[in-house]
């Protein structure tokens, strides 16, 4: 079995590449250049290219050579100061390029496109996959548009499945590392009491769910792959603090003053060309409920997350400390 993956230089993509290789697949991965983080620890064959460049994607997914599986994990993550057209170029047009190349392959490989439950916007009641898209920021809008592209290819006959893993953390991650460090240094504060709910997903569970999508997912359908426990941000901060043996977060600020502060920091960041330490999108993340149902994945894929929050956080802290990151 051969597998072709974009985004393997990232946290989740790298974990997927390693899992596919462990299953015996011959894994080929796309990276922007040899000078990029090529992840020498990964047992993959590297190819240079960029999902935004049609020619390099076509060369990567050679119609005569592509294998059985394609995982499109490359994408621009949400962060302050990124123009909407950048998100569209990478997350929408990049998806179109990869799926068009897969569609041209003689083998017509099974494809998983990595999306996000964020396309549904905030929700306290567990939202199902068929809920209408209600994106609230540029990143989410680009992911929703990319899903439209994927479904169009599914209707055209490409067996592409949409996986929606959410709030992934665990060994190997750098994106959520900042949250652990903020708790450790006593800088993490609660917004509106930290009552808002999230669904942290341990990376091993996310990988298992994506592989289940590859094997058993229905083309054109989306599957939520999130932690089974919806927890408040207050509880999340307490569990992280306990694993770090530090005091839990106590500072609690109202949402609107924090939003105004984030707006000011964004303006300073634009003027000084630096990434602000706090953005309105970040404030929204910590002050809005985002809870989804994973019943479809359990029913159709046989996937159920197996790692509880405390175990996942403790394993993450241990991994970070081994490397001197905490």
Task: Find the count of extended strands (DSSP E, 2+ residues).
Answer: 15
Proper CATH architecture of the domain at 2-168 and 201-226 and 292-306:
3-Layer(aba) Sandwich
Helical amount: 40-55%
Query: Which fold does the CATH topology of the domain at 2-168 and 201-226 and 292-306 refer to?
Result: Rossmann fold
Biggest sheet overview: 7 strands, parallel
Supply the helix-strand structural class. Answer: alpha/beta
Query: What fraction of residues sit in β-strands?
Result: 15-25%
Strand order of the largest sheet: 3-2-1-4-5-7-12
Overall 3D geometry? globular
CATH class of the domain at 2-168 and 201-226 and 292-306: Alpha Beta
Count every helix, treating DSSP H or I runs of 4 or more residues as helices. Answer: 11
Q: Multimeric state of these chains?
A: single chain
Task: List low-confidence stretches.
Answer: none
CATH H level of the domain at 2-168 and 201-226 and 292-306: which superfamily? NAD(P)-binding Rossmann-like Domain
- Rg of Cα set: 19 Å
Mean pLDDT: 93
């Amino acid at each position: 079995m051969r597998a072709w993956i974009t985004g393997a230089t990232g946290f989740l993509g790298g974990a997927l590449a390693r899992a596919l290789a462990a299953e015996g697949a011959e894994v080929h991965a796309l990276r922007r250049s040899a000078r990029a983080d090529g992840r020498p620890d990964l047992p993959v064959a590297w190819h240079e290219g960029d999902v935004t460049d049609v020619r390099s994607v076509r060369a990567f997914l050679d119609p005569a050579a592509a294998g059985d599986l394609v995982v499109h994990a490359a994408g621009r993550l949400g962060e302050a100061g990124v123009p909407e057209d950048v998100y569209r170029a990478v997350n929408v047009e990049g998806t179109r390029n990869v799926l068009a190349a897969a569609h041209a392959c003689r083998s017509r490989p099974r494809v998983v496109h990595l999306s996000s439950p964020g396309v549904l916007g905030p929700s306290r009641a567990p939202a199902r996959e068929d809920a209408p898209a209600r994106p609230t920021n540029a990143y989410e809008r680009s992911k929703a548009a990319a899903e439209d592209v994927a479904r169009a290819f599914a209707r055209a006959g490409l067996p592409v499945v949409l996986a929606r893993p959410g709030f992934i953390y665990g060994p190997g991650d750098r994106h959520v590392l900042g949250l652990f460090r903020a708790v450790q240094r006593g800088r993490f504060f609660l917004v509106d009491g930290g009552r808002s709910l999230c669904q942290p997903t341990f990376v091993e569970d996310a990988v298992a769910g994506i592989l289940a999508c590859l094997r058993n997912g229905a083309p054109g359908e989306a599957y939520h792959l999130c932690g089974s426990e919806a927890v408040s941000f207050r509880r999340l901060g307490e569990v992280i603090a306990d694993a770090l043996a530090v005091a839990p977060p106590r500072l609690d600020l109202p949402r609107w003053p924090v939003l105004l502060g984030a707006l000011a920091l964004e303006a300073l960041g634009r003027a000084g060309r630096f990434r602000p330490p706090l953005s309105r999108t970040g404030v929204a993340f910590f002050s809005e409920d985002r809870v989804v149902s994973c019943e479809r994945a359990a029913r159709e894929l046989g996937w159920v997350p197996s790692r509880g929050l405390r175990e996942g956080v403790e394993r993450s802290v241990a991994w970070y400390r081994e490397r001197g990151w905490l």
